[in-house]
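Lab notebook page, bench 4
Experiment: in silico fold of construct C2
Operator: M.H.
Input chain length: 115 residues
Purpose: comparison with the prior construct
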Amino acid sequence: MGSLRHWGIWSIDPHVLVGGVELRALESDEMNLSFLVFPRQRRRGFAFRAAQLALDYARTSLNAQAVVIKMLTGNESSRNLALALGALHIGDEPSEGGANFHVFELRLRDIPRDG
């Protein structure tokens, strides 16, 4: 399966790079999903659509059963995106830098097949 998949997120008009989305293998059937949209391109749906496509890829091509999404406490945009994708808050954990992560999980069998 490999341990990492990373894609650029591109807008169509104008055709520019606006961010990235990544899947990283965790345990045998889990992946970590992360995303970044550059500040000038935020709040236009890029992260949501890229995350949907990455989730579909994780399920269909990598046979992942679950995706974990972590964000620093206070990152309301990422929290809202995780919730919009259908992920559930499963707890908190410390980051290596001394901050705190909110941890969300999405069981891939619980989302529609068409992404």
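Observations: The chain has two helices and six strands. The domain at 4-110 is CATH 3.40.630.30 (Aminopeptidase).
Next step: discuss at group meeting.
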